[in-house]
């Protein structure tokens, strides 16, 4: 019988040590070292796997072909993936509990199963529960194969026996290998499961989707090596009490990492939102002080969003600053610029800024809209109707240019806006657009003067 030994593994970064540490020496996280048992048999198997080495080849002799893709029949999901699913790719999807990860992947599996063979593996639900959810979401033929299993060996055997085009595993933290003595969801189990599934996907050209749990900080649970192993990492975002959901790529070996897909949660599952700007501005309060429309970019998609600001006298010794959907530190910087460069005395005021729709955007082009919305609320003056903003604000109060100016302006024009207030350098380069008024501004004072004319 193989001798059992113990080691301590950090559940945040995967650092291994022969003794326990209160604070991980690698990532400095406290209380994350967990004891795990292992045998000499596991070590020998790992060495055996690493002994099969491939020979090097000349780069010139390698055939350079485009990635072989196929559509998911969900255009918003295809956009985020970079144009469709790449054969043999490994995709990790993370999100808060109840946000809609399983619903999205079940719909995805249903659409793909009309043309491809799909195997849906669940470690959290039984086959009967999956059938009930599928019957609620869609009617008609259900051609996908389902398996309720958590044993990694059984899952591996079933995949090799069925040889599907697409595999969905919900979730990777529930899958465990009986060869390891650690608990499911531990660093060793997650690393082992992901590594073996990756080998199967690459060797047999099978596209694999993994659902990952997230921590309270919003990061995918488990070691960082999990995100390094996969080809694509997607985050499913949104407020639980808001109907809109956003899916964005934070890593993508086959496309852009800036793309955003927008969905609406209904009783029939997730529905694509092809024109997010129109939806996000549907309840815009025209003529209300403290609101501004901003042209932002998410990847290649231009979007118009509404910034709301409320400035009120504080009753505290230190004024409150609250930011929802935008970067809090950037809001503090913009308030300091308004105080110093525009002469707004808001040091004794509470400031609340909200990005409507429950979405989160951290692009610097929001700066100009935020500054105008805060100034509008502070002075109780409404901004001109049918005007949109975009531009980055520097510490000296200058308005700096941002990319994709023409795309942003065309999106505003499409939704009926009559004027856009933009950086002066951007306005000079876009003189050929005559169907909308383009006003270039050089600094914050000039921008506020134009916004309140």
Automatic annotation (TrEMBL):
Superkingdom per UniProt: Bacteria
Annotated ATP binding sites: 95-102
CDD domains linked to this entry: RadA_SMS_N (cd01121)
Record keywords, A-Z: ATP-binding, DNA damage, DNA repair, DNA-binding, Hydrolase, Metal-binding, Nucleotide-binding, Stress response, Zinc, Zinc-finger
Signal sequence region: none
Lon-protease-like: annotated span: 350-453
InterPro entries (alphabetical): AAA+_ATPase, DNA_repair_RadA, P-loop_NTPase, RecA_ATP-bd, Ribosomal_Su5_D2-typ_SF, Ribsml_uS5_D2-typ_fold_subgr, Rubredoxin_2
Sequence motif RadA KNRFG motif, residues: 251-255
Keyword DNA-binding among UniProt keywords: yes
Pfam families: AAA_25, ChlI, Zn_ribbon_LapB
Molecular function GO terms recorded: ATP binding; ATP-dependent DNA damage sensor activity; damaged DNA binding; hydrolase activity; zinc ion binding
Example of a GO biological process term: recombinational repair
Limits of the RecA family profile domain: 66-214
GO CC terms: cytosol
Membership in a protein family: Belongs to the RecA family. RadA subfamily.
PANTHER family per record: DNA REPAIR PROTEIN RADA, DNA REPAIR PROTEIN RADA-LIKE PROTEIN
Physiological role: DNA-dependent ATPase involved in processing of recombination intermediates, plays a role in repairing DNA breaks. Stimulates the branch migration of RecA-mediated strand transfer reactions, allowing the 3' invading strand to extend heteroduplex DNA faster. Binds ssDNA in the presence of ADP but not other nucleotides, has ATPase activity that is stimulated by ssDNA and various branched DNA structures, but inhibited by SSB. Does not have RecA's homology-searching function.
This protein's domain notes: The middle region has homology to RecA with ATPase motifs including the RadA KNRFG motif, while the C-terminus is homologous to Lon protease.
Designated name of the protein: DNA repair protein RadA
Lineage start: Bacteria, Bacillati, Bacillota, Clostridia, Peptostreptococcales
């Amino acid at each position: 019988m193989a001798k059992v030994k113990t080691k301590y593994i950090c559940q945040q970064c995967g650092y291994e040590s022969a003794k326990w540490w209160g604070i991980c020496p690698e990532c400095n996280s406290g209380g994350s070292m967990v004891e795990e048992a292992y045998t000499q048999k596991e070590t020998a198997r790992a060495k055996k796997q690493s002994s099969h080495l491939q020979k090097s080849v000349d780069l010139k002799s390698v055939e350079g072909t485009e990635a072989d893709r196929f559509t998911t029949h969900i255009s918003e999901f295809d956009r985020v993936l970079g144009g469709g699913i790449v054969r043999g790719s490994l995709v990790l999807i993370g999100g808060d509990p109840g946000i809609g990860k399983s619903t999205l992947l079940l719909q995805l599996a249903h659409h793909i199963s009309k043309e491809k063979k799909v195997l849906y593996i669940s470690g959290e639900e039984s086959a009967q529960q999956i059938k009930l959810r599928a019957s609620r979401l869609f009617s008609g033929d259900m051609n996908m194969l389902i398996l309720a299993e958590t044993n990694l060996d059984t899952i591996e055997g079933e995949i090799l026996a069925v040889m599907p085009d697409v595999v969905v595993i919900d979730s990777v933290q529930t899958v465990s290998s009986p060869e390891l003595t650690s608990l499911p969801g531990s660093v060793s189990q997650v690393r082992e499961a992901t590594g073996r599934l990756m080998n199967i996907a690459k060797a047999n050209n099978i596209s694999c989707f993994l659902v990952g749990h997230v921590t309270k900080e919003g990061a995918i649970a488990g070691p960082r090596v999990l995100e390094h192993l996969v080809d694509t990492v997607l985050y499913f975002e949104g407020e639980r009490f808001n109907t809109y959901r956003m899916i964005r790529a934070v890593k993508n070996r086959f496309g852009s990492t800036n793309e955003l897909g927008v969905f609406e949660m209904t009783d029939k599952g997730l529905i694509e939102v092809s024109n997010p700007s129109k939806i996000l501005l549907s309840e815009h309060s025209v003529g209300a002080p403290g609101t501004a429309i901003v042209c932002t970019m998410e990847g290649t998609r231009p979007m118009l969003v509404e910034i709301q600001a409320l400035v009120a006298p504080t009753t505290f010794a230190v004024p409150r600053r609250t930011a929802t959907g935008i970067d809090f530190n950037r809001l503090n910087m913009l308030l300091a610029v308004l105080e110093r460069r525009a002469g707004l005395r808001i040091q004794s005021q509470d400031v609340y800024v909200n990005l409507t729709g429950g979405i989160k955007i951290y692009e610097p082009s929001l700066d100009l809209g935020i500054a105008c919305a805060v100034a509008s609320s502070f002075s109780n003056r409404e901004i001109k109707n049918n005007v949109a903003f975009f531009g980055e604000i520097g510490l000296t109060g200058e308005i700096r240019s941002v990319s994709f100016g023409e795309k942003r302006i065309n999106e505003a024009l499409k939704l009926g806006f009559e004027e856009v207030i933009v950086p002066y350098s951007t306005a000079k380069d876009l003189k050929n657009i005559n169907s909308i008024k383009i006003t270039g501004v050089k600094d914050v004072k000039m921008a506020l003067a134009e916004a309140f004319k």
